[in-house]
Specification:
By secondary structure, the protein is of the alpha/beta class. The protein is built from eleven helices and 13 strands. The N and C termini lie far apart (42 Å).
C-alpha cells in the first residue's frame, strides 16, 4: 500500500476525532473533515470544513488522500433518506482520489439471527427499515470494489460505548444514570449475551484496516471487550460506582405506543430484536489476521465512568 499520502478522516464525532489523533500519533499526515469545527482536535491534525453531502465538496476535501475513513452518521430518524446519498458522495470522492475507502458500519444489515453469532459471511437479510438501508449501502460498497471503481475495507461494530457516547443503548441512559444514582433504562432482556463495542477499540481496528494491505476488499468485525450479558456489564458498573444499579425496563407495548408519536421511539422499537435474542459479534476473522485485540471490559467501564464523572454531566 502506498502510505505516503494523507489519511483523511470524514467526521469528527467520538470515533472520527479519536481516529485522527491515533493516526497522527503514528506519524501519518491526517486531515479531519466535518461541517463544523470540532470542540477538540489533536494538535497537528489539519481540519477542513466541508458539506460532505455535496459530491464536489467531498471530492475537494479528499484531494491527495491515500486513505479515506468514513466515520460519518446522520440523524437516526432520517437514515433511509440521508445516509445512502451521503455514502455515494464519499464513495465518489474516494474514487476520484484513488484512495482506499475504509467505512465504519454497524450490524443492522444482518437482521435477526435467532441468537447465532454474527460472522462476516452471514447474509444481509435485514427486515427493518434501517437494516435494509444498511444492507443496501453495504452491497453498494462491495459492488464498487468488485467493479474496480474504488478499493474498500469495511469495519463493522456493535452498539458503541465509551467517552462522549450518549445516544447508544449503553450511553447516557445507562452510564449517566448509574453515576447519578438513578435507575438505568433498558429495552429488552438484560440477561441475554450482547456484544458492545468500545470506541477506542473501534478506532484501533479502523486504523488497522487503513494501514494493513491485507484488509483491502474485506469486511471485518472489529474486536472489543468480551461479550457478556448486559446484566454482567451493569454489575461491573455497579461495583465501580459503589452502589446497586437497578434496571427500569421499557415494556414492548409502551415502546410501540411511544413510537406512534415519536420517530426516535419508533426506530428503537423496530430494532428491539437485538435485545430479545443473543446478539453476539464474532471477531475471529479480524483477530486471526491481525492479532488479538480488544480492551478488557472492566477497563472499558472504568474509562467510560471516568468521562461521565468528569464531563458527562455537563450536557
Amino acid at each position: 500500500m502506498n502510505d505516503s499520502g494523507t489519511h483523511v478522516v470524514l467526521g469528527t464525532g467520538q470515533v472520527g476525532a479519536e481516529l485522527a489523533a491515533l493516526l497522527h500519533d503514528a506519524g501519518r499526515p491526517v486531515r479531519a473533515v466535518s461541517r463544523h469545527r470540532p470542540p477538540t482536535l489533536a494538535a497537528g491534525v489539519e481540519w477542513r470544513a466541508a458539506d460532505l453531502t455535496d459530491p464536489e465538496a467531498a471530492a475537494d476535501a479528499t484531494k491527495g488522500a491515500t486513505v479515506v475513513y468514513q466515520c460519518l452518521n446522520v440523524p437516526y430518524t432520517k437514515w433511509p433518506q440521508l445516509f445512502p446519498p451521503l455514502q455515494r458522495a464519499v464513495l465518489g470522492a474516494a474514487e476520484r482520489a484513488g484512495a482506499l475507502l475504509v467505512s465504519l458500519e454497524n450490524v443492522y444489515g444482518y437482521g435477526p439471527t435467532g441468537g447465532a453469532p454474527m460472522t462476516e459471511d452471514l447474509p444481509l437479510a435485514a427486515t427493518t427499515v434501517r437494516g435494509r438501508t444498511r444492507a443496501a449501502m453495504s452491497r453498494e460498497l462491495s459492488a464498487a470494489h468488485a467493479a474496480g471503481r474504488v478499493r474498500t475495507a469495511t469495519g463493522r461494530a456493535s452498539d458503541f460505548f465509551g467517552a462522549g457516547v450518549r445516544g447508544s443503548s449503553l450511553g447516557e441512559r445507562v452510564f449517566g444514570n448509574a453515576v447519578a444514582g438513578r435507575r438505568v433504562d433498558f429495552i429488552g432482556d438484560p440477561d441475554l449475551p450482547h456484544t458492545y463495542s468500545y470506541v477506542p477499540d473501534i478506532v484501533a481496528g479502523l486504523a488497522v484496516l487503513g494501514t494493513d494491505p491485507r484488509a483491502e476488499g474485506g469486511v471485518w468485525h472489529l474486536p472489543g471487550p468480551r461479550t457478556a450479558t448486559t446484566r454482567l456489564v451493569l454489575d461491573v458498573i455497579a461495583e465501580q460506582v459503589g452502589h446497586p444499579v437497578a434496571v427500569r425496563n421499557v415494556p414492548q407495548p409502551v415502546l410501540r405506543a411511544l413510537g406512534l408519536v415519536s420517530p426516535l421511539m419508533r426506530g428503537l422499537a423496530e430494532m428491539r430484536y437485538q435485545f430479545e435474542e443473543p446478539f453476539i459479534l464474532d471477531t475471529t476473522r479480524f483477530e486471526t489476521a491481525f492479532g488479538a485485540a480488544g480492551t478488557p471490559l472492566e477497563t472499558a467501564v472504568t474509562e467510560t465512568l471516568a468521562w461521565y464523572r468528569a464531563d458527562g454531566g455537563a450536557a
